[in-house]
Amino acid sequence: MKRRKYDKEFKRDAVELVIRSGRTATDVAKDLGINGVMLSRWKQEHLARMDESCGALPESGLKPSEVEAENRRLRKELAYISEQRDILKKAISIFSQEGNGRTSS
């Protein structure tokens, strides 16, 4: 099996797509028809180069890889909180329907 080679521009664009979209490297890789592990490695290498070249970002004091990790954590937390909100909305809907069905004598 022959190894496929990808140019720097393709790698950079693929990594940027992962970072900007908030999707997993596996999902993006599937869409691009490439291996997810390879795209994850490209992303780690990209973030390491950014960490070396620019150090901590002035506005946050964090390295780009730390910002990415924080974004990932916040996305997970947002998904959890959104799920909790949806559960509460359903519960309120159920309880309000029960109240409408009862009649007082």
Describe the structure.
The structure is a single chain. The chain is mostly helical and about 100 residues long. It has a single domain, classed as Arc Repressor Mutant, subunit A. It has four helices and no strands. Helix 1 crosses helix 2 and helix 2 packs across helix 3. The longest helix is centred in the C-terminal third of the chain and has 38 residues.
CATH class: Mainly Alpha
At the fold tier of CATH, the topology name is Arc Repressor Mutant, subunit A
Major sheet description: none
- Name the overall outline: elongated
Number of domains: 1
Low-confidence stretches: none
Radius of gyration: 22 Å
The secondary-structure element order is HHHH
Extended strand count = 0
Question: Quick gist of this model?
Answer:
The chain is mainly alpha-helical and about 100 residues long. The protein contains 4 helices and no strands. It has one domain (about 10-100): Arc Repressor Mutant, subunit A (Orthogonal Bundle), CATH 1.10.10.
Layout: helices, strands, pairs:
Blueprint: H1 8-21, H2 25-32, H3 36-54, H4 64-101
Q: Which structural traits does this protein have?
A:
0% strand, mainly alpha, 105 residues, single chain, 75% helix, Arc Repressor Mutant, subunit A
